[in-house]
């Protein structure tokens, strides 16, 4: 697996890349990509780290798995490539943004503009086999991405973690709440959102209010 990520992340994560578990994970992913259709494309596996440098990251959104349909996943959680129909969770994210910060519903579901502003869009598992949700879970990715969260928590201050749904909320145990902000809500998936656990969380305006209090630039959602 060709690990090409921003130098600031490479510096933070070099020890992880050299761990035995990561070598096993890399071999697993390499074989999966050789023998099956997997997503995202190999060059996009670490896209979240390419777009949001370690020292520039301001906000962290934690997802679970990449999208497993054709041409959807682009290496950023909840994001899809330009021109791809928006998955239901992303639709609900955009609906909340429209109400929360009065921004029109966008044509593109590509969240790269968020990432370029310092929003780390991190899936816990960075790869998946086509049409098989969760197929690359428990292979080592979670160990790696937990290490990412610990590095951010330990070596940065004043980050805002957005934890949506039960899976993401468990990651709060890795975060130093004395140094960072955590906002939690239900997951934006229809199952959760339609029960009233997502809409109205106002996480996007709350995030910008916290950034402003810290003297940082707001995110253009």
Automatic annotation (TrEMBL):
Where is it mostly found? cytoplasm
* Annotated keywords: Cytoplasm, DNA damage, DNA repair, Glycosidase, Hydrolase
Q: Which CDD domains match?
A: UDG-F1-like (cd10027)
Q: Where in the cell is it found?
A: Cytoplasm
State the superkingdom. Answer: Bacteria
Q: Which reaction does it catalyse?
A: Hydrolyzes single-stranded DNA or mismatched double-stranded DNA and polynucleotides, releasing free uracil
Q: Which GO terms describe its biological process?
A: base-excision repair, AP site formation via deaminated base removal
Q: What is its EC number?
A: 3.2.2.27
State the InterPro entries in the record: UDG_fam1 (IPR002043), Ura-DNA_Glyclase_AS (IPR018085), Uracil-DNA_glycosylase-like (IPR005122), Uracil-DNA_glycosylase-like_sf (IPR036895)
Domain Uracil-DNA glycosylase-like stretches: 50-211
SMART domains to which the protein is assigned, alphabetical: UDG, UreE_C
The family database entries (SUPFAM superfamilies) matched by this protein are listed as: Uracil-DNA glycosylase-like
**What molecular functions are annotated in GO for this chain?**
uracil DNA N-glycosylase activity
Q: Which residues form the active site?
A: 65
GO cellular component terms, semicolon-separated = cytoplasm
Judged by the first EC level, this protein's enzyme class is hydrolase
Which NCBIfam families is this protein grouped with? PRK05254.1-1, PRK05254.1-2, PRK05254.1-4, PRK05254.1-5, ung
- The protein depicted here goes by the name Uracil-DNA glycosylase
